[in-house]
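Let's sit down with a protein and look at its sequence and fold side by side. Which protein we use is up to you, so please pick one and set it down. Label the sequence line and the structure token line clearly, so we can match residues to local backbone shapes. Go ahead whenever you are ready, and we will take it from there:

***
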Amino acid sequence: MATHFPDLGVKTFVKVIQEGPTAGLVYVDDSKERDATNKPRVTFTFIEFINEKGDWRYHGLANVGDLKYKEDGTLTEFRPNELPAKLAIDGRVLEAPAPIEKPDVVGMLDIFSYGYATQVYVNDVKQSVAADISSSGLLQGGLRKGDNALRVIIQRTSGEYFQPPTVTIRLVQQDEETAKIFTFKPPQDVVGTHDFNFMVEDK
């Protein structure tokens, strides 16, 4: 199955985080995005590994966006507490969940969510919540050929900086490139539950 692994050659290594049998590598690079006041942003790439029976294996990755500089002018540091719960470096190796039916198509989920907590379900499979961050990762459960159901639940957080969230579904193609197939970008504050359907062509 394709994982759409990032090109680490264009990123800068930051550090290793480890707690017991859970560990992660942190990389950073400049983002093409800027905030509402035109301040530069960066993207941290976190790659997690877990130790099972003495062997380290890849567990997952996440991209976390943030401002490049803090208010005092120093570079922003990676904050592990912004990682999805399933990638927490907490020394616990969770039992594998019940198997999900093999997807027809591998997908990626991108969420831009500042000032909001955005929960996404795709075909009734719950994805990680993004709250006051931008995140990108593999779509749990993948996509179906034909009709797919999307549910987006949006709630305000206490964050000072906010703008309407953006949710994007991308298709991972055979050449490992991705193509956008659905984007939800509301023009204004839309707290609540939003249901959509989108198609994946059977090629």
The chain is about 0% helix and 55% strand.
